[in-house]
Amino acid sequence: MQKNNPFITLVTPEAPITVQSHGGRAKCLQRLVRLDLPVPTTVALSFNAVHRLAGGDMPDLDRLMEPFAQDQLLCVRPSSEDPDWGGPGAVLNIGINDARHEELSKSIGKPAADELYLRFIQSYSEHVARLDPDMFDDIDLSGPSALKEALEAYEDEAEEPFPQDVTTQLGGVLRSMARAWEGTSARLLRMAKGAPADAGLGLVVQAMVLGLGQGESGSGVLQLVDGATGHPLVKGRYLSQSQGRDALEAGASSLFLTKDERGPSLEEELPEAFDHLLTHARLMRNRLREEMQVEFTVEDGTVHILDGVRIQRSAQAAVRIAVALAEEGIISHEEALMRIEPRALNELLHRQVDPNATRDVIGSGVAASPGAASGKIVFTEAAAQASDARGEACILVRRETSPEDVRGMHAAAAVLTERGGVTSHAAVIARGLGLPCVVGANNIRFQTKVKQLTAPDGRVFKEGDVLTIDGTNGDVLFGEPEMLEANLDDSFKQLMIWADEIRDIDVRANADTPTDALTAENFKAQGIGLCRTEHMFFDEDRLTVMREMIFADDPEDRRAALERLLPIQRADFVDLFKIMSGKPVCIRLFDPPLHEFLPGNRAGMRDLAEALDLPLSRVERRIEALSEYNPMLGMRGVRLGITVPEIYDMQARAIFEATIDASKDGEAVVPEIMIPLVSAKREVELVKTRIDAVAAAVRTERGADFDFRLGVMVETPRAALRAEDIAPHCDFFSFGTNDLTQMTYGLSRDDAGRFMSAYVQQGVYPEDPFHTLDADGVGELLKLGAERGRAAQPNLTLSVCGEHGGSPESIAFCRKVGIDYVSCSPFRVPVARLAAAQFTIKDKIG
Ligand code: PEP
Ligand code: MG
User: Fold this and answer.
1) Residue 801: CB within 6 Å of ligand 1?
2) What mean pLDDT is reported for the chain?
3) Which of 204-208, 301-305, 432-436, 750-754 comes out lowest in average pLDDT?
4) For the chain, which has fewer Cβ within 10 Å, the N-terminal or C-terminal residue?
5) Predicted confidence band of residue 612 (pLDDT cuts 50, 70, 90)
6) Is 617 exposed, middle or buried (0-12, 13-18, 19+ CB in 10 A)?
7) How far apart are CA 431 and CA 772, in angstroms?
């Protein structure tokens, strides 16, 4: 009869039960029934039935109870679509009343019968009658008169006797669970976990297997892997004379499952039941194709399986479990790949604050680069270096960072800034270095002059105080909580191999230094998609020469300074080419405004005057002359390349000479040279002419030939719109979506952090567009640029090298518009590889 009722369904192998109509638990129980496991009789209520029930429309309870034996005690458990969305707690022992209690006292003994009844009275009082849970505080629940006192307490509080009618009890429990699910706070809570607003709840009504009484009876849980590591291991507890999950809370009085030095075990005490249990658990793993926690009850020596729940797991365990299941042929490689949330890989790639550690959060900002690190706070780049020299971990605290801070960032364990968003300088560099970083932490007061931070709660932290930066969630913590180390084990590597076999978009890394390139290689990037060459000039010795070049009065002096930079830059490129051993390396010509290389304060200016043997006033004047109102839209990128062409000449020469040197004993290197901030075709023509001339000169001088590819960074809206004019001069376009986003929105990438969270919270932007590519606006320009570029130059290689390159949502978009590869910070390469594979699989399965 239940088979024909859309609301009440007996769980049989053929019953029409789905996760979407009855929830995950009901579906899982049906699978267990299909496996012929000893599952007690179960009836499932659909989402619809429960929704109607919350509105007062009670299902036909007589029909619901039909499949159960007369006087059968029942339990009700929630069954939502996703167990992570929570739900009301299970209620056990429904159906017990005075008469049933008396019978049970005879069959299983009075103490056990008392315990069953008491448990139900307590749940019913709290969840159904909505009485204060502390009403039982004065009762000694293990005392001989506990039951009598509890019934009296109920009658006093509820002003009616405890219900004796089974239908009343069951109806009350069902209604209270349905209403609890539909309450506002429960809805908000599950929506925060990703549930849709109208997520449904199913309920399962199951015959109780008592776990109390004569013979060996009890309950427990078992799983076959460790949820923290994913290593195989029989894990769980069993408690004699208990129900539900009591065994987990009972501490020392519960049994271990397998033989254990710490105490007695189920394996020794009840070997036959243990064997059955293990066989059932293994069958569940193989046939449900998942690691499950098995909830079981032993009644008079016989094992019953009450439930199976997907085990909670760390990211590391999730990867190990998925790979193990696929290696054993239980799931396919594709399914293993689909089971891992790409961003969860960050947990494996970086140290993290132990989820069990106590967190003393003193403030928060934008989670700009994942991972966590502790250290003494320092407020200057010099102090960071000094700290590093002493071997002390430090956290570099700045209002915002500039290229001058890069050396300090190298020396620091983490970075914290007051300003900025996900594509600000600090964020980009930190991600490249794999350093935890929180930016835009403007709820903390930064008093960098007096070297102190004031937390919103008034606590003050001075230089040398130890803080922890949690770049995974944007928190700043006091002290040094316990950490979990990064862990790139064989399972991770295997998963990545499968991802590479499947994905159809390439992944390169943004890498500026040999260290970055090594990380990129390590994470199997398919090349370097963006080498920001300006980052190569911040080492002490180079910076001085760079400054000499900037201070040069005429092209001749400038050329002399550049000649000193040439061998240094050439060596950088040889290193990169060698590390990448034949894989493509895309080198972006100098991009930032020159003044970024000049000191920002008087002491720095004095040092510079001394180093260059110039009067201080001349240094000041030069800096003043170079300063701009809006440097990000000023004399930078190709504009510098055209007005001070000697810089690009030197870089092109360094690239070509390095190409010849690095090709000598290996595969021929074909460098890619990229021109930044282009907005007009003529810019490309001018730069191309000079680069071709340098190439010709190097070929003649060195008597060697080489190929190279020239391309443009499409990062101004005009370059995207005029792609058809620009493309004929190019081998490739790389969309610089950081600047493209900045210029499309007219939104400063360094200042947007101040109001971004307000904007996102109020729904002005669905997401931070510097973080997730704005498919509607910036994406349209990208699509347009790609189409127009390819129309004029069909062989044009297309890529995205802004920070979006590493974000899964943006990768989906890039695949759709025909981008050949994305390029992102080296530490994001694995995330991008997995996300790319998942999109290919999704397309395949439709
Ligand atoms: C960009 O603008 O997207 C880009 C990759 O370059 P940068 O971040 O160096 O400006
Ligand atoms: Mg840019």
Assistant:
1) yes
2) 92
3) 750-754
4) C
5) confident
6) exposed
7) 16
Ligand that comes closest to the CA of residue 534: 1
Place of tokens 């990037």: 525
Pocket test for ligand 1, best of 423, 429, 512, 739 (most atoms within 8 A of CB): 739
- In 3D space, the residue among 107, 39, 46, 35 whose CA is nearest the CA of residue 71 turns out to be 107
pLDDT of residue 607: 86
Give Cα 571 distance to the centre of its chain: 37
Dist. CA 615–CA 617, nearest whole Å: 5
Rounded-to-5 percentages of helix, strand, coil across the chain? 50, 20, 35
**pLDDT at position 541:** 77
- C-alpha closest to that of 93 among 67, 61, 124, 50: 124
What does the pLDDT read at residue 710? 98
Cα 288–chain centre separation: 26
The mean per-residue pLDDT over the stretch 121-139 comes to 89
Asked if 402 and 535 count as a contact pair (C-beta separation under 8 A), the reply is: no
Bridge partners, residue 218, by sequence: 240, 298
Residues 6+ apart with CB under 8 A from 679: 716, 718, 719, 722
pLDDT bucket at 2, cuts 50 / 70 / 90: very low
- What separation in Å is there between the alpha carbon of 486 and the centre of ligand 1? 28
Distance CA 582, CA 559 (A): 31
Per DSSP, the residues of 669-687 read P--EEEE-S--SHHHHHHH
Place of tokens 């901030």: 677
Q: What pLDDT, in 10s, does the model give residues 168-186? A: 999 999 999 999 999 888 8
For 170, the token pair is 């069951």
Distance CA 214, CA 231 (A): 37
- Please state, as a whole number, how many other Cβ atoms lie within 10 Å of the Cβ of residue 41: 16
Beta bridge partners of residue 310, listed in sequence order: 292
Look up tokens 């002493």; give the residue: 390
DSSP 410-467: HH-SEEEESS--TTSHHHHHHHHHT--EEE--TTSEEETTTTEEE-TTS-EEETT-EE
Binned at pLDDT 50, 70 and 90, residue 459 comes out as very high
pTM beyond 0.70: the answer is yes
Closest CA to 673 of 661, 684, 662: 684
| pLDDT tens per residue, range 246-281 | 777 766 678 888 888 888 888 988 899 999 999 999
Rounded to 5°, angle at Cα 381 from 634 and 400: 45
**CB distance 750 to ligand 1 below 6 Å:** no
What one-character DSSP code corresponds to residue 127? I
Residue nearest to atom 1 of ligand 1 (CA): 736
Backbone angles phi, psi at 684, to 5 degrees: -70, -40
Question: Using CA atoms, how far apart are residues 535 and 591, in angstroms rounded to an integer?
Answer: 10
Catalytic center residues: 425, 801
Cβ(370)–Cβ(353) under 8 Å? no
Residue 93: φ, ψ to 5°: 70, 30
Considering only CA atoms, which of 207, 124, 195 is closest in space to residue 165? 124
Looking at 775-845, which runs of residues are DSSP E strands? Answer: 797-800, 821-824
First to last CA, the chain: 37
The CB of 823 under 6 Å from ligand 1? The reply is no
User: Cα torsion for 492, 493, 496, 497, to the nearest 10°?
Assistant: -140
Ligand 1 lined by 534 (C-beta under 6 Å): no
* Residue 706 contacts residue 668 (beta carbons within 8 Å): yes
Cβ(516)–Cβ(383) below 8 Å: no
Give me the DSSP letters along 100-121. Answer: HHHHHHHHH-HHHHHHHHHHHH
Residues 441 and 416 sit within 8 Å (Cβ to Cβ): yes
